Amino acid sequence: MGHLRDCADWTAPPYLLRKPDSSLSKYYELSLKLNFRFPVDSIIPDRDDRIITQNDFDIFIDFIQIEINKEAVKEENELSKKEERLENKKRIKKENSEI
Prior knowledge:
This protein is an all-alpha fold.
């Protein structure tokens, strides 16, 4: 029986992505965040396998845009809450100084 290598020791060989024309590089860039996992099951629920192809890129781009929008709304809400707390502190301070 052969020895199985630990999964942590295994790395896939680099895969060369081919593009039909070098002028497309100004429009497309592929960058993968280390250890970031897409929730494939919830992004493409009717998929039986976990294989992703270029045909799925639009779906993933939409997912990424939704996540970016959620993050922007979250940051905006946090900023609003922070500003509201600051205004409340100023109001209380002013009320206390008038007493």
